[in-house]
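Re-run with default settings, no changes from the original entry. Doing this only to confirm the output is reproducible before filing.
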Amino acid sequence: MSGKVLRPGVQRLPSGSRVEDALRAAGGVRNGTDVTGLNRARLLSDGEQVVVGGPPGTQPGAPSGFTGPGGGQAGSAMTGGTVSEANPISLGTATIEQLDTLPGVGPVLAQHIVDYRTQHGGFRSVDELREVKGIGDGRFADLRPLVRP
């Protein structure tokens, strides 16, 4: 957890934790921070970064008040920054909403990625992304540096 919280850093939470749980683990929000767009009831994903008080609409799949990417299910630990080569999205844990933020990926293709992950027990390498319906050579070249298995 980062941004305008009292104790930023990685927060290890049990599976099924919500934004409210992460805020509590981070010591709460700093005084004066606008959290009106923050969905405190939203379930968190493993590896997800939550930046409190950042510019609205910059976190994939999250309401204003958050920035940065995230991924998957189970035992949340929020870390990272914005989606980039330095901070790729995990194909093994990302939600449909998070995958939808990648260039050339909409909700249908994001669902295909999640379906492939479910059917094949995850991604062992980024190259497996080529096997997902709807991902050709051009799209794969765009996505390769932005994702990890």
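The chain has two domains: 1-81, 89-148. Residues 49 and 78 are 4 Å apart (CA to CA).
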